[in-house]
Amino acid sequence: MSIDRLTALFRHVQFSVTSEQSADQPRMPVLRVAQVNGGITVSYFKQPEMETKAQCEIALDFGGNKNPLLNGLPEQLQATLGEADAAFPIAQLVLRETANARCGTPVVLDRLFEILLIMLLRSAIEQGQELPGLLAGLADDHLKYALVAVHERPGANWSTEQLADLCHLSRTSFYQRFQKRLGSTPMQYVRSWRMA
Fold it and tell me: What pLDDT score was predicted for residue 1?
């Protein structure tokens, strides 16, 4: 059975992209695109260095520190794309739009950077990288079922037993695995998702 681990997450979590960052505010996470050795590197930084500013960079505004997607992302994610990668033409378009600003370029870049973030997360999950937090849970072949269910129906009256059943795990195995991968108990996660 195929399960979509990102759609429910992005339906319920709001973020926007912006090229403007105020010097007197804490730095927002950024997504950067750079051409390297015939490929293109897409990088996400939760806490970018102040003095670093890439040519193709956009800030991601998650609306504050309580956003569950922001809290679930690692400090850094990176993928190097080759011509065979599905995201390669999108990254190329980002580079072209940045180099050659035209009417509507800011709006086009906003949409392209949103797509690149989703594709970067998809790649990390599919490769099963050692990821902390939410992405580790989404990459887990068992826990993904519970997480998607909670993301799709945050208001449901979930119990640890119900979530364990969705994952085809015993309550104890589920609880331990969840806590190890996500760093919280299942019910803490459900409560924090509802509040967010």
Answer: 43
